[in-house]
Amino acid sequence: MFLVGLTGGIASGKSSVLQVFQQLGCALIDVDVIARHVVQPGYPAHRRIVEAFGTKVLLENGDIDRKVLGDLIFKQPDLRQLLNSITHPEIRKEMMKQTFKYFLQGRRYVILDIPLLFETKKLLKYLKHVIVVYCNRDTQLVRLMERNGLSLEDAEARIQAQLPLKDKVRMANHVLDNSGRWSDTRRQAILLHMQLEQSLEYLPLRLGMLVGLAGIASLLYLLARCLLPSP
Q1: Which residues cross the membrane (predicted)?
Q2: Quick one: how many helices (H) and strands (E) in the chain?
Q3: Does any domain span residue 224?
Q4: Does 208 map to a domain?
Q5: Rounded to two decimals, what is the model's pTM?
C-alpha cells in the first residue's frame, strides 16, 4: 500500500474531486472530517483551544464556533500557528489509525485529503504521490465569494493565508485542472485513479510486511521448540 496526498487551495474544487474518488471506491481519509472530530467537547484538543482562545470561540452547546475561530486565525498567523500546534498532533493520531485499517483491508493506495499539506509539510515525507486540484486565481476568487458570501477583500485575505496554488502545482506529482468544465475535471480524476490502481508501488510494503510476519512466525516456532521438554 502507498499513500497519496490530495490538496489544493480554498475554493479550488478539492472537495468535489474527493467525491469523484469516493464514487470510484477509493480508500479515503478526510482530514477536515478528522479535524472536526478531534475538537468535539470532551476531547483534549477542545479543552486546549478554549484555554488558548477563550470561551468566545464556543457555540451555546459547547461546540467550537468554526466561523469565529476561522476569522481569528486567517488574519493572525501567530494564532493560526497556535491552533495548528493544538490540533495537528491529534489529527495525525487519528490518520494513523485509519491508514492501518485500510492496510489490513489490502488496499493498494489510500488518499489523504490534506488541505494544508504544503503549508505544514509534516506529512510530505510519507506520501508516494501528491495531487493538487488547481484553478486560476480569478475563478478561485469568484467561487469563494459566492460560496461563503465574502467581499472581495475578505476572499483575497483567505486566499493569501495559504500558499499560492501556482507554487503547489510546482511541487505536485499530478495536477487536476478545475478551471474549466466540471466534466473535464472529472475525467482527469478517473484517469488518474486508473493509473494509481494499476501501479505496482504497493508491493514493497506488502512484501516487507509478509517477510516480517514470516520472521516473527519463525522466531516463535524456534522459541516453542526450545521451551518444549526433550523426549
Answers
A1: 203-224
A2: 11, 5
A3: no
A4: no
A5: 0.75
